[in-house]
Amino acid sequence: MIDQSRNEAAALAGDLPGVLLEARRLAAAAPGLHGRRRAGEGEAFWQYRDHRSEDGARLVDWRRSARGERLYVREREREAAQNAAFWLDPHPGFDWRSDEKLPTKRRRALVLSLALATLFARGGERVSALGAPTRAGPRAVDQAALDLVAQRSPAPEAPRTRACLILASDFYEPLDIWRARLARLSAAGANGACVMICDPAEEDFPYSGRTLFHEISGRNEIVLGRAEHAREAFAERLAAHRRGMREMARALGFLLVTHRTDHPPAPVFALLAAALSERGL
User: Taking the domain 2-33+81-278, which CATH number applies?
Assistant: First the structure.
């Protein structure tokens, strides 16, 4: 199974031009993110706002204020770029798909991540695979794509600087593990989004009769004589796990969204783009 995972990762690397093309098409259909459009240190004019008592006389824009009876302050646009970093779960199970017609979970995660990176870079932000150097400009997304394909960190590492993180996984590891991971990231000043990607077979549990289930990354196996009898219990455990993940992520500053690989990526991409833009990136 490990060899199979390596083969799938190599295939994904070989398909990188196609992945980038799909990501750019996805990003082209969405409005741009204006991550730098906020007040701060810079040279470009942004907006006028009402003068506040704590501003003092020094900040009054007297030319604009002379046109009426109110005092105004001239604000400049913040020019320092924000950092957006991406992490894809390297677990072999994330390279799985139940049908050859479907993308693997990892491939869909890569498309969504690179589409978001394209929007961020378009807005003047710096992007990277988590742990790799951040970059800005037209080549930043291409380098991020190469770094994401090569990324093998078993867990997201806390960034050295404040950043928006986009973590893509099926998040099937126990809640306590993810609570500890997200708590470390939050303590380092990071926030962002958790993108939970699943295969339709993992959600619908379409199995019946005598079925052998085996662990992709190990030797554990289980045989169910009547697999359909486990469907309801499986659905309840999955729903409970997702509720726990969503509540925990929200408490630690992360948005959690779910996506199935048999659904088009555009709706979840638009949701992520809008939500992250509202959060200031």
Answer: 3.40.50
